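Structure tokens please, single chain.
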Amino acid sequence: MSTSSDATPPQRNCAECSKPYDANPLASIFGYDNSTYCEKCYKNLTKCAFCTVRTKENDLNGFDGKHYCDDCYGAMSKCGHCDAHLHRRRSRYYEWCEDTVCEHCARDGTAYECENCGSYVSIAEYCDNEMEAWIEQSFCYPCYERRSESTHISDYLDAYSINTPLLEHYRTNPYAETGKAPTSKAAEWKKLTNHFNDFYYWAREEGFEHNLSYLRKGALGYGDWGWHNSSAKVTVKVCDDIERFIIRLLKSKYLVKHKIHGQVQPFAELFASVMVFQITNKDYEGERSVMWRYPYYTSDKERANKEGIVLYRGSDKELSTYVDYVDRKKLKQIILNRKFPDGSALIKKLNRVIVRNSEYVWGEFGSFSNNWSEYMTNAGSARCGVSIGFDAGVHSKVVAWNGEIGSCQSEEYKEGLGFNHISMSVNPHLYLLFYHPVHKEQIIGRSVVRFWYPRSSTTGKISKRKLFIMPSRLYLSDFTHMKFQFYAEMFKVLSEWAPLIAQKFGMDNEPVLAAYTRTRHDSQSVWDYLVKANDDKLKLSNRITRPRIASEWYHPIWNSLPSGGEGYWAYYPDEYQQSELATSKESRVNDFVVRETMRSDIRVIKVIK
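Here you go.
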């Protein structure tokens, strides 16, 4: 009697080729739509693009270039962001703004920016937490959790019973004692309180402790407002465009390739004083190369005669020439002055050569045509107003401007990085502001100028024998492509003003202008921008110093900050400044005092008069 394993496997006919095949389960049986197929025919069937079940192609359904079985086709949809196909019963997806969004796009895509810190809340977060309070109020969850939490200054004290020499210059509520106030004091107080109430209404409602006051300060010290007004000369963009245009003309392969003596490259001849050619002649002593300016340049002829170098003048021998070097600094000066070193007019000479070669020039470099027209008719530089100082109304204007350019010291970051921007009303720092060259009242640049003094490593006391004046990172809304020039001009204006403030402070020694070498958010530090400026009027120190320095102690406004680590007790530390906190001997303004400290690499900057 035979066993089951010895039984003959049942035979079936393939639904496609009709040939019999072994239907034993161990011999690979395939089926679809209640039909059975041999292995060969089943592999020839088309796969569903989602579930991969094989099906006759005629039984598949087309969807956006792909084919699906009946079961999958009825559930297919498409991501509104990346066009990926989704199975509504088997894929994870989100419904967002009348779109179906795949899981990947929902986690990478942004629903909104947090009102407080500016971080992105993803579409997935929004959909998963819809109707939650933090979503309804447009916060990220961490900011929502801590917005009603605060940390108090008394938990972070570094010292006790400190007196600030600035005390006499603070002003508090002029109505506090009699209910009346002089007109000038009332106006100043109103400017401060209006800005404070508009910006910090939420913090007052939630009980953040504060003592509202302001420090009268300005360009000539403490006790009164005031500004030092000057100007800065900066190159307008057209000069940079013309520099690129001229260099392109000088390096044109068409005009400098294999020329015979007596045939000149007209633009190279015109700018011979700022460039160097590499001249090679294969017949000249074994392919010897000579570093030389253009042969027609007078001083080169004299040098050639003196050194016995033959220039092959008048011969028909070809020279292989190319531009080896262009002194861009000298070229830029020629463009700015609109004159050659000999005093002749740049526009007149260059335009004459351009006209003679106009077909080639504008055929090859037509994109510079408008730049050249603009340069011929407009000034190559502009004068921007510059002011150093502070007054009762300027802070609110600067904060509004901060918001326009995306600075963190603005409304957008009011519960985090920008919470304590109001400290500019009470600290000893000043603003340095650039104004538009045409729209004179329009701010286009802002830096914060700090006064630093050497600080004892043992007692912590500062020495008034030496004063460091250091501007922070410069924010610009216009002329951003020339930021390095603005940094150079900023130090020139500071140098002009520094002796005045030193005299007001009663100092015998000249203040030290210095540049920070670190920065938190910009790609380059103050020092980096000055190096890039390459300004003849600035003498940049090669020596790095690392002094222990501190500001004066001053009274803060806020005694509480939002917890979470994004707020600062002092003004925002763009260059990693730190702060120390202490109790105050005198409580008329506040029970606490703050000062900024620093120990970091800096570079001394001198301005050549």
